[in-house]
Structure formats: C-alpha cells, structure tokens
Amino acid sequence: MIKMIKKIVILAMVLLIQLGSLPEVGLASEIGEGAKIFNTHCAGCHPNGNNIIRRGKTLQARALKKYKMDSLEAISNLVANGKNNMSAFKERLSEQEIKTVAQYVLEQAPKNWR
C-alpha cells in the first residue's frame, strides 16, 4: 500500500512539473482585449498577421520563429521599443496592454490568423 502511495505522489509531482512548463494560455477576455488592441494599433500594418511594410516580417508562426520573435518577452519588447520601421508603443500602451497584445499574437500565429 505504501509503495502505491509513493508511486502516486511521484506521478503527481511529475505532472505538476510538466504543467509548469506549458506555455501560458490567455483567458478568453484577455484574447478579446488583445484582439481589440491589435485591431486598433497593429492591424494597419499587420492585417491578418501579414506585414504591408516588409513582406517577410509577418506575424506568422514560421516568421516569428525565424526572427526569434516567438516568445512573450520578445514580442512585448518589440511592441514597446519598436525597431527599424516598427514604431514603439510604450508611450501609447500600458505594460499590461503590450503583454496582452503580445499574447494575442502568440495565440493567433499557430492558427494562421484564422
């Protein structure tokens, strides 16, 4: 009986460790807010995850990975500080809004923005 309890405890610990390594999933309200922020501030240059200024620098999963922009931190930093033709938004959006829109981009990219 004790051996079985030990196995269950070990299994539970392994599962908890695995859950901690999963990517953060946004709540439906955050995704809705992310879509609103994106449509207001980003969609002009990035309609449907594309890029009307620089074609290859899209918000599609493959491009995000290629340019090492496939993490919440990387996208948040780019949105906040801008780079090259990309405007900085840290004066227009709060830190939470930047994180929310970055999470929205990460949610949409694997779905091909559909």
TrEMBL record:
Domain Cytochrome c: 29-109
Location relative to the cell: Cellular thylakoid lumen
One Pfam family from the record: Cytochrome_CBB3
Alphabetical list of PROSITE patterns matching this protein: CYTC
Keywords recorded for this protein, A-Z: Electron transport, Heme, Iron, Metal-binding, Photosynthesis, Thylakoid, Transport
Ranges that cross the membrane: none
Chief location of this protein within or outside the cell: other
Any GO MF annotation of the entry: iron ion binding
GO biological process: photosynthesis
Annotated Gene Ontology cellular component terms: plasma membrane-derived thylakoid lumen
Superkingdom per UniProt: Bacteria
Family: Belongs to the cytochrome c family. PetJ subfamily.
Protein name: Cytochrome c class I
